[in-house]
Amino acid sequence: MIATIEKIEILDEAQEISSMILHSELAEEYRSCIYMLQQDREAQKLIADFQRMKEKYEEVQRFGKYHPDFRTVSKETRELKRKLDLHESIANFKTAEDNLQKVLDEISVLLGGAVSKYIKVPTGNPYFDSISSCGGGCGSGGACGCK
Question: What's the distance, CA 40 to chain centroid?
Fold first, then answer.
């Protein structure tokens, strides 16, 4: 019974942290950027064009340099990706998304580290993975000390 009450209290605190994040300036910036991205017709066209080009690229990659369109498709894909990355609303969205993700990663590392330095924290961020002792999981060859 005590463990159940303690678990409920922990979940309540987690809900409070979640609410703080949702109401933060970072989250507001993220929501604003995603809205602007969704409303930007040019950005949406670029994204759709890139999705189509990515499918062509994946098809060409199956055959590698032996595919007759390998160089052309590879070059066009890189050019379109660069256009995508430099488009203002797309770049703003990516920056806002990265900023919010960094905070979520930091929170994960803090929570895991508060419990034990051996807690694996899935962040998807190599910087944080190197901080956690397991560096991405116990499949890393015992680098974390667990065998």
Answer: 22
pTM of the model: 0.74
Q: Which two tokens stand for residue 140?
A: 């890393």
- Give one word for 58, left, alpha or beta, with left for phi > 0 and alpha for psi -120 to 50: alpha
Measured CA distances, 68 to 18, 43, 65, 73, 109 (Å): 51, 30, 8, 10, 48
At residue 136 the predicted structure's pLDDT band, cuts being 50, 70 and 90, is very low
Cβ neighbours around 130 below 10 Å, total: 10
The SS3 of residue 105 is helix
Sole residue written with tokens 């005590």:
2
Q: Could you report the per-residue pLDDT of 7-60, keeping only the tens digit for each?
A: 999 999 999 999 999 999 999 999 999 999 999 999 999 999 999 999 999 999
| DSSP percent split of the chain into helix, strand, coil, nearest 5 | 80, 0, 20
Instruction: Indicate the range of 61-65, 80-84, 131-135 predicted with least confidence.
Output: 131-135
